[in-house]
Amino acid sequence: MNNALSLAQLKFDVWLIEQLQYAPEPGLTLEELKNRWNETPGHLGGLSRDRMTTHRRNIRNFWGLEINAPDRKHYRITNPESLALNTLANELLKSIQNYSFLQEFQDLGDLIQPEKIKTGAHYLQQIGQAMRDRHKLHIVYQKFSDTMPYKAIVHPYCLKADKGRWYMLAYKEGNEHQNPMQCFALDRTKQLAIISETFIPTPDIDITSYFRDCFGVWHDFDEYPVQDFTISCTETVAHYLRTLPLHHSQKESPFREGPEGRIVFHYHISPTPDFIAELRKWGDELSIKGQ
Predict the structure, then answer these.
(1) CB atoms within 10 A of CB 167
(2) pLDDT of residue 105
(3) Parallel/antiparallel/unpaired status of strands 67-68 and 74-77
(4) Lower CB count within 10 Å: N or C terminus of the chain?
(5) What is the pLDDT of residue 291?
(6) 213: pLDDT confidence band, cut at 50, 70 and 90?
(7) What are the sequence ranges of the domains in the chain?
(8) Sign of CA dihedral 126, 130, 136, 141
(9) What's the Cα-to-Cα distance from 274 to each of 204, 215, 280, rounded to whole Å?
(10) Distance (Å, rounded) from C-alpha 98 to C-alpha 84?
(11) Can you name the residues that pair with 67 across neighbouring β-strands?
(12) Which runs of consecutive H residues, i.e. helices, occur in the chain?
């Protein structure tokens, strides 16, 4: 990704992606895009063919999306699946969309209430730099269950947001006889500093698959082995689960269950207590098979 792009450029790129993502076939002409841009509140400058060419190149290099006009008239995204496969780019797109929306309507004050991320975001820049340059971190950390904080040297591997908190997955030095990989919640981190010493990532840790079978960040396969897990629920609950799946492994059965015709969902997951609690919140409208 080209980190030199300005926020204004990124916002225009996101606007253009939005227009083409939801455009009907065969796409939008340059004239149609010009008219839409001119009607956008706070728009800056006109949309010329040269500007379109520049942003098409930016979008290809930054977002991995190809914008072409196969019929030499209508522009459209010819590889929409690319964005879905790039989790970071997809989340960045949504973040800029949210930023643009909040900026435009900030005069509405408390009438708009976005989801809040707990404290700790001010550490993200340092952690990102340490991850990129493979530098170790010195942290002062205090668990909720501890009365005093402790100090540790860690090797940062991954950042993950979950349920309103940022977490850092890191290798903790001096913890080799236990599980050396730990998740540190940034809102429980008292101090954090990059140190000059570098580290070599262990090949045993595959970040892509580390959280694959987890619900959120709870990773304890010894205590909660990964297994096939089945639930049945009412149609009302099923609508929620279809539109916002609990886990990437979620699959809906084509067969209904029982006299009420309940909908059945299957998961392949580590059923940690936070996952069970998420299911229990539906009460009698959801049943866990075998319980």
Answers:
(1) 22
(2) 82
(3) antiparallel
(4) C
(5) 62
(6) very high
(7) 7-106, 121-205, 227-288
(8) positive
(9) 27, 8, 10
(10) 18
(11) 77
(12) 7-21, 30-38, 49-63, 81-85, 87-104, 124-133, 207-210, 235-243, 273-280
User: Residue 169 in contact with residue 232, Cβ under 8 Å?
Assistant: no
- Beta partners for 161? 166
Q: What is the pLDDT of residue 205?
A: 85
* Fold exhibited by the domain 227-288: Alpha-Beta Plaits (3.30.70)
Residue listed under structure tokens 């540790």: 152
Fold of 121-205: SH3 type barrels. (2.30.30)
Sign of the CA dihedral 35, 37, 41, 45? negative
Q: Residue 86: pLDDT band by 50, 70, 90 thresholds?
A: confident
Query: Per-residue pLDDT tens for 39-72?
Result: 887 777 788 899 999 999 989 988 889 999 999 9
Q: Which residue matches tokens 């609690």?
A: 277
Check residue 2 and give its pLDDT. Answer: 45
Residues 6+ apart with CB under 8 A from 121: 166, 186
Can you give the pTM of this predicted structure?
0.76
